[in-house]
Amino acid sequence: MRKTIQSKNGRDVLTLAIETSCDETSAAVVKNGREVLSNVISSQIDLHKKFGGVVPEVASRKHVENVNIVIQEALDTANVELKEIDQIGVTYGPGLVGALLVGVSAAKAMAYALKIPLIGVNHIEGHICANYIEDKTLVPPFLCLIVSGGHSHLVFVEDYGIYEVLGKTRDDAVGEAFDKVARAMGLGYPGGPLIDALAQKGDTKAIKFPRVYLEADSFDFSFSGIKSAVLNYLNGEKQKGNPIVVENVAAGFQQAVIEVLVYKTIEAAKRKKTDTIVLAGGVAANSGLRRMLTEEGKKQGLKVKYPSLTLCTDNAAMIGCAAYYDYLAGHAADLYLNAVPNLKLGEKYVRYSQE
């Protein structure tokens, strides 16, 4: 690659980022890691609603249709030409393998044609980095709770790109539990926003669902039990012929989930002796979680931050931010970069060069 990035001499660095890990096709242009010039997101929610969830093959085909259009729109919105781009950042895992391959293939082709660096980005790391865009003053160290449809992590961010995973789910991710409960209640997809809206109208004390804290010293999560408890409640009430107040079910379920999330997050912050907590991921948009974590954090003298709603969902701006810091750390990839659907936070790609 002929182009080098010299950010330390004051020259602006433009990153073109691509995100196709699940059912959003997104492209963004990000300047110097934190200034978003464009962030275009093409969602497939309406396409997958009739299936009650994301269908991987359908998602992949839609990414193929959309990716070039979305990239061009991101460039046009930013008023930037391809020749001005300094590097390409792309999500290469974790996610749906077919969906990831669409973005990775597009990014590799562009990096090769433009002779500029290619940066493979971990999707979970991207969610963390969304907070750098939201709060330009945020710097490590801090604690991050990452909650989405596929991930539930408690992570101590020691420095840019340096992470200590304190805990993660042992079964269902929290967003997955929301979707499954919403489906059982006949609410539709995606379940998180629908349950959140209903919960605000319900009584959190009307139905007592279990809180699963696991071992006393563990920061791991488990949400399969509460999901089963809600399903058993719904089936039991139907068999008895009792009316089901869906608002109360939603409120009781959501309260049980967020109490566990908040408790473990606060305890983890104390353990790591940090005064800053940030939220990340799709479930970070949940109003109940934001409110309770902020209130409990304030009681403990902790600052709680979270991204705007757009930056909570899957988006390319957060990938562009992560790519910027990855490149500064020397983590550029070669053109043998491949999709890694089960990529773990903190892992970096292997160089597949055959030289």
From TrEMBL:
<feature type="binding site">
    <location>
        <position position="314"/>
    </location>
    <ligand>
        <name>Fe cation</name>
    </ligand>
</feature>
<dbReference type="InterPro" id="IPR022450">
    <property type="entry name" value="TsaD"/>
</dbReference>
<dbReference type="Pfam" id="PF00814">
    <property type="entry name" value="TsaD"/>
</dbReference>
<feature type="binding site">
    <location>
        <begin position="146"/>
        <end position="150"/>
    </location>
    <ligand>
        <name>substrate</name>
    </ligand>
</feature>
<feature type="binding site">
    <location>
        <position position="196"/>
    </location>
    <ligand>
        <name>substrate</name>
    </ligand>
</feature>
<keyword id="KW-0479">Metal-binding</keyword>
<feature type="binding site">
    <location>
        <position position="179"/>
    </location>
    <ligand>
        <name>substrate</name>
    </ligand>
</feature>
<feature type="binding site">
    <location>
        <position position="286"/>
    </location>
    <ligand>
        <name>substrate</name>
    </ligand>
</feature>
<feature type="binding site">
    <location>
        <position position="192"/>
    </location>
    <ligand>
        <name>substrate</name>
    </ligand>
</feature>
<keyword id="KW-0012">Acyltransferase</keyword>
<feature type="binding site">
    <location>
        <position position="123"/>
    </location>
    <ligand>
        <name>Fe cation</name>
    </ligand>
</feature>
<dbReference type="InterPro" id="IPR043129">
    <property type="entry name" value="ATPase_NBD"/>
</dbReference>
<keyword id="KW-0808">Transferase</keyword>
<protein>
    <recommendedName>
        <fullName>tRNA N6-adenosine threonylcarbamoyltransferase</fullName>
        <ecNumber>2.3.1.234</ecNumber>
    </recommendedName>
</protein>
<comment type="similarity">
    <text>Belongs to the KAE1 / TsaD family.</text>
</comment>
<keyword id="KW-0963">Cytoplasm</keyword>
<keyword id="KW-0408">Iron</keyword>
<dbReference type="InterPro" id="IPR017861">
    <property type="entry name" value="KAE1/TsaD"/>
</dbReference>
<dbReference type="InterPro" id="IPR000905">
    <property type="entry name" value="Gcp-like_dom"/>
</dbReference>
<keyword id="KW-0819">tRNA processing</keyword>
<dbReference type="InterPro" id="IPR017860">
    <property type="entry name" value="Peptidase_M22_CS"/>
</dbReference>
<comment type="function">
    <text>Required for the formation of a threonylcarbamoyl group on adenosine at position 37 (t(6)A37) in tRNAs that read codons beginning with adenine. Is involved in the transfer of the threonylcarbamoyl moiety of threonylcarbamoyl-AMP (TC-AMP) to the N6 group of A37, together with TsaE and TsaB. TsaD likely plays a direct catalytic role in this reaction.</text>
</comment>
<dbReference type="GO" id="GO:0061711">
    <property type="term" value="F:tRNA N(6)-L-threonylcarbamoyladenine synthase activity"/>
</dbReference>
<dbReference type="GO" id="GO:0005506">
    <property type="term" value="F:iron ion binding"/>
</dbReference>
<dbReference type="GO" id="GO:0005737">
    <property type="term" value="C:cytoplasm"/>
</dbReference>
<feature type="domain" description="Gcp-like">
    <location>
        <begin position="35"/>
        <end position="320"/>
    </location>
</feature>
<feature type="binding site">
    <location>
        <position position="127"/>
    </location>
    <ligand>
        <name>Fe cation</name>
    </ligand>
</feature>
<dbReference type="GO" id="GO:0002949">
    <property type="term" value="P:tRNA threonylcarbamoyladenosine modification"/>
</dbReference>
